Amino acid sequence: MNRAADWLKTAERDLGLAEVGAAAGFHEGAAFHSQQCAEKSVRGLIQHLHGSVRGHSITEMLRQLPPSLSLPAGIIEGAQRLDKVYVTSRYPNGYVSGQPGDYFNQQDSRELMADARRILEWCRSQIH
Questions:
Q1: CA–CA separation, 111 and 117 (whole Å)
Q2: How many Å apart are CA 18 and CA 36, to the nearest integer?
Q3: How far apart are CA 80 and CA 108, in angstroms?
Q4: Residue 78: which of 94, 62, 95 has the closest Cα?
Q5: Is 91 left (phi over 0), alpha (psi -120 to 50) or beta?
């Protein structure tokens, strides 16, 4: 059973959670849900292509896609930014001191949500 559509719908909801979090000042939550949006988007595309993948690195997942799928400029760089927040947006031990909320701000939210949206839209465009 191909569940690509389910992955994309869940990714869209994660982007919605990122937007709500950012609006409320929970920028660490916006960062995490942006990462989740992108990861689930790529998983949906991989599912559509009848593949599977382990792990959480968006960058690695994108690099494993067939070469016939031309990645748009900036997609890998956005994935790299999102990969960096997978752990640090959730756990205090990602930093010497403080909690994740001390390290994320409104600009981070805007940029990470834009990266996630770009990846989501590209993945959706590849699923016909």
A1: 10
A2: 9
A3: 14
A4: 62
A5: beta
Measured between alpha carbons, how far is 124 from 16 in angstroms, rounded to an integer? 16
- Whole-angstrom CA distances from 120 to 29, 46, 54, 64, 114 are 18, 13, 19, 17, 10
State the Cα–Cα distance between residues 10 and 24, nearest whole angstrom.
Answer: 21
CB-neighbour burial class of residue 56 (10 A; exposed 0-12, middle 13-18, buried 19+): middle
Residue written as tokens 């990470």? 112
Lowest mean pLDDT among 11-15, 19-23, 67-71, 79-83: 67-71
Query: 4-126, superfamily in CATH?
Result: Nucleotidyltransferases  domain 2 (1.20.120.330)
pTM exceeds 0.90 for this model? yes
**Residue 117 class from Cβ within 10 Å (0-12 exposed, 13-18 middle, 19+ buried)?**
buried
Encode pLDDT of 95-121 as tens digits.
999 999 999 999 999 999 999 999 999
Q: Where are the domains of the chain?
A: 4-126
